[in-house]
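Usage example:
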Amino acid sequence: MSGASETAALDSPAPRRTFWSAALMPWLLMSPALLIAIAFFGLPILFMGRMSFNAHIDQRFYVPDFTWDNYAAMLTDPTFRNAIWTTARLALISSIATVIIGYAFAMLVWLKPKRWRLAFVALALCPLLISEISIIFGWWMFFPKNGLLSYALVSSGLITDKISLMYTEFAAFVGLTYVTLPFCFFILLSIFDGIDKKVLEASADLGAAPLRTFHEVLLPLTKGGIAAAFAQSFIWAVGTYATPSALGPDTLWTIGYLIQEQMLGKHNWPRAAAFSIVLTVGVAIVMMIIRMLSSKRTALNG
Amino acid sequence: MADTSALELDRLRRAFGGVVAVDDVSIDVKRGEFVTLLGPSGSGKTSTLRLIGGFEKPDAGAIRINGGRVDHLPAYQRDTATIFQTGALFPHKTVAENVAYGLRMRGVARADIAPRVRQALDIVRLAGFEERYPAQMSGGQKQRVALARSMVVRPAILLFDEPLSALDLSLRLQLRAEIKRLHDEIGFSAIYVTHDQGEAMAMSSRVAVMRSGRIEQIDRPEKVFGEPASEFVYTFIGESCCLKTQMASGAAADADGATIDLRLANGLADGDWRLYVRPSRLQIDRADLDNRLKARLDFTEFLGDVHRYHFKAGRIELFVDHQGAIAHRPGDLVDIGWRSADMVAYR
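Running the assembly step on the lines above writes:
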């Protein structure tokens, strides 16, 4: 066989083949991840979207239909509007608290010598090893009138009469913050770990006092991490249903609570699905806003 | 006169746990002087630099910059500027912003900052790179930005923390020459930490050789090389051959006690000796020199400019750098000679 004929045979179909493989290759490479995402995230949301247009007649879970009634009902329902406000407020406050505490904690672990690190990381992992229900039981020991908090405050002389913080919005806020803190901490720690600690010394060396260094160097370098940690906490806080309803007052109706009520209490699956879709879309919008705000930083900053 | 000193270290001491990192270190750096701290890793040179910069507090002793005590001041109130090993540029700031940083922190008027930044970047030959980010630059360029960022604030003393050790050889030599040129042109005062004796020799006004937290010798490079104060300084700076010898009533033996044919111009007292000679000062086939040793040629290495001939005499191994080929083959017994001035003996 001569080399010339082989080259000629390869030459002519080559352009078409490279075109097709170039166009297909990324999709082929992505397909396993794409299939998993579609099967486990895309399809359920699609089913839920379809469910939200069904009708609810008598005491049946749902009747196949195509109606906007469930969405129209939300616009007129003050309970739902209040729940949106309650959920957003609670999620926002607890996310801000989480980010501040998580940031301080992650910075501390980052700055401390390596030998402390394992102990701190193990400490942060602890809450993740306990189920949410057990943690709620823990708070039930902590917040009531005869609980740990009240006892500690009275015996330390800060207050004279026992107090109960159980079933208050504050308890719900503390509970939510506690649940979201570990995730926030690990996100921020990974961001801090990517920073060369010498830049802090360089900043001090050039005449910047500690606060100035924080503002000029550390904060800009961790901006992306703060946004990611906030987004993570916010999603979690918006979606969590058990903690706020178990620790908060009876009147603390979050969207999670309303969905649960529609689903399990009133057996109204289409309405529950419609609530869920609105919640999902709302969270997606918040995420997009956070991304837009945090991607303002320079394109190439290592 | 105290007012000619840029930096004075007075009996500085710092221990970490039980380990004394800096032990009784005193140095007086005159204005415009370039002093190098040279030593192996763990010799306390970087710790000394960090004490001067204010990143560590001394346990005892005083640090004076331009005559004023600074050892109680935090880093950001000291008139020093450090060039770090990794550069430590701010990755989120452009080159111009990096260089301007120290000026802004020192409250220099906004109108004066831009021309000074431009001038500093000109000096390190990086004009036109103002808008780049550190991630877009090479290692050598980053170190030049770090140099500009430190020099632009005109500190009382510049502190170099092994700034070239992360670069490859050719870049290291190039930047070394550049720092030397800048020092000659501008005349800044500097402390330069390195474990590379070539760097220390090439750049310094004075070299301080450090070992386990102490200064073994501080002097001009030629003096440190030519008249080392101790065996450690001799072996740390430059290459050397060590002849471990037992002397007994004028006769020499190797460490095992086997007799070797060693003739010395000045006899040594009985006992164990370590004789040192630089390989470049040893000469082959020179039975006429005052000091000589008969040794067997073992093998030859080609090093480019010279051949390195490895010899053995009993347990003693030595090597001679010699230009061109010699008439001997491995196994031949050869006369190696050297002058008395080129030899030091320690016991």
